[in-house]
């Protein structure tokens, strides 16, 4: 998996000055360096663009690197709502994305994502693209929460569903997230009401397409 990711990042993961600046700021500000890989970021931009999404919801902002990728796939009127537990991360992500020229197009919901999802639902908000990259034990609930806010034909993308490769290779040491991801991947694979598949990029994207 590492060799494949290195190869893909070498070919398709070139960061431009803006994305390099965000990654550098994340490092300088002492945030964990757990943003998606550059090639995974490119997939996010392409998936948002290919689906024609206008309203994107992200769970797990960190420093705004994936947020930048999502915004780049949107039309100029498109917006990103980002759910983040850590208030200081949300402020830094907002600052980075404003510096990158996306003023007025990103809003943050600070707190536990399940609470934020319920609040957005109560406000009648809907979205046509979701990117989930936060606490792994919440993923199954986040999928259900996203489905409640989804417009017809929406796409839900989840990161880290390979759990470092441990979901498909027993020789790789299991992570805390391994049982959650195994259950989630199998549960989504068995659903007949959605179209879904695994995208082998980074630590694995699970892509779920809801019916029109
Ligand atoms: C892997 S990082 C996100 C990286 C980001 N998507 C990127 O690639 O640039 C996970 C983020 O999820 C946030 N998080 C963890 N638990 C959360 C929760 N219960 N609700 C909302 N956000 C949460 C963390 O604070 C962290 O910023």
Topology of this structure?
Elements: H1 2-12, H2 17-28, H3 38-51, E1 55-59, H4 65-72, E2 79-84, H5 87-99, E3 106-110, H6 113-122, E4 127-132, H7 139-149, E5 150-159, H8 178-190, E6 195-199, E7 205-209
Helix pairs in contact: 1-3, 3-4, 6-7
The protein binds S-adenosylmethionine.
The site of S-adenosylmethionine has 20 residues, from helix 4 and strand 2.
Description of the structure:
The protein has a 7-stranded mixed beta sheet, with helices on both faces. The mean pLDDT is 97. It is globular. With 212 residues, it is α/β, with parallel strands linked by helices. It has helices at residues 2-12, 17-28, 38-51, 65-72, 87-99, 113-122, 139-149, 178-190, and strands at 55-59, 79-84, 106-110, 127-132, 150-159, 195-199, 205-209. It starts with a helix and ends with a strand. Helix 7 (139-149) links the parallel strand 4 (127-132) and strand 5 (150-159). The protein has one domain (2-209): Rossmann fold, CATH 3.40.50. The protein has 8 helices and 7 strands. S-adenosylmethionine is lined by residues 34-36, 59-62, 65-66, 83-86, 89, 112-113, 133-135, 138.
Bound molecules: S-adenosylmethionine
Give the SSE string. HHHEHEHEHEHEHEE
**Which CATH architecture?**
3-Layer(aba) Sandwich
Count of separate DSSP helical elements = 8
- Strand fraction equals 15-25%
Shape descriptor reads globular
Q: Might you state the CATH topology name?
A: Rossmann fold
Query: What's the structural domain tally?
Result: 1
* Radius of gyration over C-alpha positions, nearest whole angstrom: 16 Å
């Amino acid at each position: 998996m590492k060799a494949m990711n290195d190869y893909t990042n070498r070919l398709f993961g070139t960061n431009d000055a803006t994305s390099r600046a965000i990654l550098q700021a994340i490092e300088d500000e002492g945030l964990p360096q757990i943003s998606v890989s550059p090639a995974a970021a490119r997939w996010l931009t392409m998936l948002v663009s290919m689906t024609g999404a206008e309203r994107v919801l992200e769970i797990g902002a960190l420093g705004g690197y994936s947020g930048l990728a999502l915004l780049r796939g949107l039309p100029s009127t498109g917006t990103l709502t980002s759910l983040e537990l850590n208030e200081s991360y949300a402020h830094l992500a907002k600052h980075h994305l404003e510096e990158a020229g996306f003023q007025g197009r990103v809003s943050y919901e600070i707190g536990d994502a399940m609470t934020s999802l319920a609040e957005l639902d109560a406000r009648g908000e809907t979205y046509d693209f979701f990117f989930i990259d936060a606490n792994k034990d919440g993923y199954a609930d986040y999928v259900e929460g996203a489905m409640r806010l989804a417009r017809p034909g929406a796409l839900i993308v989840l990161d880290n569903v390979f759990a470092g490769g441990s979901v498909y290779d027993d020789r790789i040491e299991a992570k805390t997230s391994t049982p959650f991801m195994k259950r989630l991947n199998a549960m989504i694979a068995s659903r007949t009401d959605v179209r879904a598949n695994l995208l082998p990029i980074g630590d694995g994207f699970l892509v779920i397409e809801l019916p029109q």
